[in-house]
Amino acid sequence: MTFQWTAVASFLYGEIAVLLILCIPFVSPLRWRKIFRFQLWSKISPYWDKAFLSIIVVLVVLFFDAVREVRKYSASQGIEKSANLHPSSYDHIQMKLFRSQRNLYISGFSLFLWLVLQRVIYLIMQLASEIESLDTMKTQVENAIEAAKKYMEDNEQLKRVLNLSKDSENEQAIKTENIKLKKEIQREKAELNRMTEALSKSQAEVIALKKQTEGLTREYDRLLSEHEKLQNITEEHHDKDQ
After folding, report:
1. Which of 87, 89, 125, 193 is deepest in the core (most CB within 10 A)?
2. Distance separating alpha carbons of residues 127 and 114, to the nearest angstrom
3. Domain limits at 128?
4. pTM above 0.85, yes or no
5. What's the pLDDT tens digit per position in 192-229?
6. Alpha carbon distances (Å) from 73 to 67, 124, 140
7. Does any domain span residue 179?
């Protein structure tokens, strides 16, 4: 195997090893992105696109060269077989055909895996970005939920304060009304006491007038009896004078 095909075969084995490493299940895309963002990779990244295209061009050239070799030795095999030449020449052509086919497979798989490797790395980086965005969204949602809970608690506390304020206002109104009622009751009691005193005084005056009337009646009866007595005496003197 010549140097160039040895290098292509080594490149193919390296691609297979890298793909197997990237397929390790317990390494997360975020970890791979951290690895790809090392300082060394950051220095290489400006040249990555050029290197990628250059390797593709080299592999394509080698692939078409291998295709040309396969077609060449396939045609030579038909010619040698129809000519019935020496068997060693036929074996030599078979060996060349085998090597060209091997080189075709090596270059073809190297080109294919190089494209796959590029796509896998791109998908890993994209998946890492999506995971990070999802984590950020989860954090924002959790913060929003916590803020909503806090606002709800503040709202409930404000409602309780307003209810307490309303209750205080109601209690103040009730107290004011009670004070008014107490004053009204006291005023009514004072009025009742005054009327009771006036009634008592009136009853005392009535009793005094009744006693005075009874005394006048007795005095009138006494005077009336004396008048009758005097009248009787006067009539008796008058009868005697006649």
Report:
1. 125
2. 20
3. 3-144
4. no
5. 878 878 777 777 777 777 777 777 777 767 777 776 77
6. 10, 42, 66
7. no
